[in-house]
Amino acid sequence: MREITELRSMKTRRTDATSAQETRAPTKGRTARRDQELLFDADLVDLPQAMRWREWMGRVEAAIFASPAPVTREALAKLVGRACNFDDLICDIRDELRARPYELVHVAGGYQLRTKARYADAIRALNNGARAGGPPQLTPTELLTVTAIAYLQPATRAELSRLAGREISRDVIGSLKSLDLIAAGPRAPQPGAPYAYVTTKKFLEVFGLASLRDLPDIEKLEDAGLLQCSANEIKLDGMLDPRDKDAIELVEDIDEESD
């Protein structure tokens, strides 16, 4: 009987000790983070102004280089002092990279270093798994489909088929999903409740868009006669393909004319 009582007592003490450790652990974690923040000198007030600016540039570029995904402005701002004009810093980094085969871009809500489009063929020729910046190679139907989803989202497969004037197969949808360019969104309030598809953050990243607001203005394209009024005749092929120089120049011309 005494042994059972002692076991219960030991169990209770261990439970109390574990609870106490769990209670203290977050405190230690918070303390460690606070100490780390205190050790990291973002302001660099001891450095001359020119050296301080170069150090801030190096920090921001290194952080972006090391990240597998775009880094937000808010995250990068923690690496520089309160006296830093972040926009000027980004401009200086871009100027310094101007002659390099890669550039600093603002995509998917953050900053990312990516190779310039004109070097894509050279990177593909290596065939060693390296991937050039920009979208993957898509078939014309896949490019039309992802472009249509970008403008119409959420859009069902039936709606995409009506727009394209031909059936958009499940294989096309599956291919775009496997590339993480689109995802299933809400079910449409239609008979059978089919899935409606939306673009992803990866879509913004590979097409070099900071947000969907950066999509070429479809009304400007219509006004310029680049799109037909009939849904079945709308020509969206290539509108998002950065490798299509004609499409890019047309959009840039339209933007300049509207300014």
Automatic annotation (TrEMBL):
<dbReference type="GO" id="GO:0051304">
    <property type="term" value="P:chromosome separation"/>
</dbReference>
<keyword id="KW-0614">Plasmid</keyword>
<keyword id="KW-0963">Cytoplasm</keyword>
<dbReference type="InterPro" id="IPR036388">
    <property type="entry name" value="WH-like_DNA-bd_sf"/>
</dbReference>
<keyword id="KW-0131">Cell cycle</keyword>
<dbReference type="Pfam" id="PF04079">
    <property type="entry name" value="SMC_ScpB"/>
</dbReference>
<dbReference type="InterPro" id="IPR005234">
    <property type="entry name" value="ScpB_csome_segregation"/>
</dbReference>
<keyword id="KW-0132">Cell division</keyword>
<keyword id="KW-0159">Chromosome partition</keyword>
<feature type="compositionally biased region" description="Basic and acidic residues">
    <location>
        <begin position="1"/>
        <end position="16"/>
    </location>
</feature>
<feature type="region of interest" description="Disordered">
    <location>
        <begin position="1"/>
        <end position="31"/>
    </location>
</feature>
<dbReference type="GO" id="GO:0051301">
    <property type="term" value="P:cell division"/>
</dbReference>
<protein>
    <submittedName>
        <fullName>SMC-Scp complex subunit ScpB</fullName>
    </submittedName>
</protein>
<dbReference type="InterPro" id="IPR036390">
    <property type="entry name" value="WH_DNA-bd_sf"/>
</dbReference>
